[in-house]
Amino acid sequence: MLRSFLIRDASYTFIYGFLYNLCILIPIIASIRVSGFLVKLIIFIAGFAAALVLVHHFPKKQFERKHLSVLYSGCLSLKIFIMSCLLMLVTVLFLLLFKQIFWSVFLGGLAWFILLETVLFWNGMLRVFLSSVQLGLQMRIIAALCGWIPLVNIYMLLKVIAIIEQELAFEYKKDLVDEVAAETQQCLTKYPILLVHGVFFRDIEYLNYWGRIPRFLKQRGADIYYGNQESAQAVAYCGQQLAEQILKIVEETGCEKINIIAHSKGGLDSRYAISNCGVASYVASLTTINTPHQGCIFANYLLKNAPARLVKVVETVYNGAFQKLGDYNPNFLTAVSDLSDEACLKLNQQMPNVAGVYYQSVATFVKKASSGKFPLNLFYPVVKHFDGRNDGLVSVESAGYFDETLLIEPPAKRGISHADVIDLTRENIEGFDVREFYKDLIVDLKEKGY
Fold it and tell me: Please, what is the Cα angle at 388 between 382 and 391, to 5 degrees?
């Protein structure tokens, strides 16, 4: 199936490239053969309209996900742009060889060629820049800056196309597997899944904290719900909100129990809900992912050394912004305080494991600062100084809290950051497929009877 996709893509490139070149050449040739300004104008307008129709109707429905279809058409535009430029170069050289260049229309033809190629190029570049996930901010900036440097711009364009083609091929294979996996219902667990976000984020429908993971799991039968707790508040406060959400899910669905998968501070919130808010009997399992169970010495250091005035400004701005995003009572400083090693030591005494609930933890780490995106790449060396191996925020020792702990070794020299492990950046990481990782977690819960 992937091979047929690649063959079809090559066919589209050739066919549309040929047709687009006709839109360029026919008006130029016609302007030589016909007389009358109005007739020539009509021919050029018709050629421009035909070019726009081709640009607009590049194959769209290639993927289930709309942004991938847009990305595909943008990549196709860029490849046709290169092909079209090469074909025009060959054409001009051929005409020069046989002395068929009509210098009287050369400048007009050149302007016409530049106009249509500009339309084609920017159609592709804008679609690619707006829809690609793997291109990254750094590559976008470099490509934009190098676009004005001769020869370098060609190299960068080819590199952009290579990255996009790799992304499209990866996602196309994923979609092919999804069609089969949807029939297996391999992630349909006995109890539904409650995904609990970490600090400084909310569960927003169109900006999913968990990236591509929920869609992937739902395709395989998973029944997914979200924590919807405050983005920043005390562990006890958020724990009570989670308890209310758990009771609501159980009451509305009749599911009896739920499986919780919680990231970062969400793991502490979930533990508090289970141990202190009367919902232990409604929880089958808790899986925490990069949760600072033993706190962060780094957080404690910041609280003690950050200028009080700066902390106050950040708190005021944050609380005001997240109230508008749906928080009822955000409290930036309280949330950070509950992540310190001193606070977590006290919390752990209040949140013992409850019999009947299956507990497991997951820990990841990176090997160098450059493995994480901003601002994790800045935090990594500081956290390493205080806490040792870490994912950019949370140490391995703090995250691997329960007897059942899975430590994910970094693939190659990169590693898995605090953001990577929830697919926040939507980046395809060589050696680690985050969607498959969550599928495996849930299949394991299913096999254990949860």
Answer: 75
- Look-up of token digits 């953001």: 419
Half-sphere exposure of 143 (CA within 13 A, CB side): 18
Query: Number of C-alpha atoms within 13 angstroms, CB side, residue 265?
Result: 29
Query: Which tokens go with 97?
Result: 């060889």
Q: pLDDT tens digit string along 90-108?
A: 777 766 666 555 555 667 7
Domain boundaries, the chain: 2-172, 186-447
Task: Provide the CATH number for the domain formed by 186-447 in this structure.
Answer: 3.40.50.1820
Q: How far is CA 299 from the centre of its chain?
A: 27
The predicted pLDDT at position 17 comes to 79
Rounded Cα gap, residues 253 and 108, in angstroms: 69
Question: Looking at the whole model, is its pTM more than 0.70?
Answer: yes
